[in-house]
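pasting for ref
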Amino acid sequence: MQITKREKIASVVIFSVLMIIGFFISNSINQNLLEEYQIYDTALKVDSDETMFRRGMETNIGFSFVYGELDTLDPVTYSEIGGAYSYIKKEEQEYRKHTRIVTEEYTDSKGKTHTRSKTETYWTWDTMHTESKNSTRISFLNIEFSYEKIPFPGDHYIKTISTGYHRRNMYYGTGTNFSGTIFTSLKDNTINNTKFYNNSTISETIQHLESGSEIIVFWIFWILLIAGSISGFYFLENRWLNK
């Protein structure tokens, strides 16, 4: 495909305009990140010190990184699988038959290509019902909180139990004990807007938060957007010229 002079000029204009816009957006993101980094750098750091942790909540110290043990005080489970979990989910599934219309191409005896549709049968495990339960009381650094105060790590597959012909229950759960760092606001004798970083020390957590990955992700997205915009222009231009 031959690219005309007009298309080259238009491409340069599109590229230049979008790059300028990108730099403005990137600078805005970078400024917000620098403000966040300042919060991280000035936040209180509490490394397994229960007394300091309590004192920070009592005195409304504000943003803090706290390293310690996250424990479940009232674990939950289902009797058929046993064990102890902070959160557990059961999916009741049934192996069911489905049909779908598929279109395929074929070539006849004269070498001509045609399409035809047919009904295809297939089987899948479908979730018919889901239920879950979680603990209500947890502790961090030996201080008790409600379950909702600290987000636990995600669940994982535990077990599958057959419950009859073409029926089964699948179980997923989250453990009861983790070590890691929370980033939170200590005020009103509690923790607020808390994030938990599993198996991460305070310094590792700060290093992760200050990695600047947001800028990299933005530029990858923006470059793809620029490429898509220029390709879209070529497509529309050629379509208009061929009318």
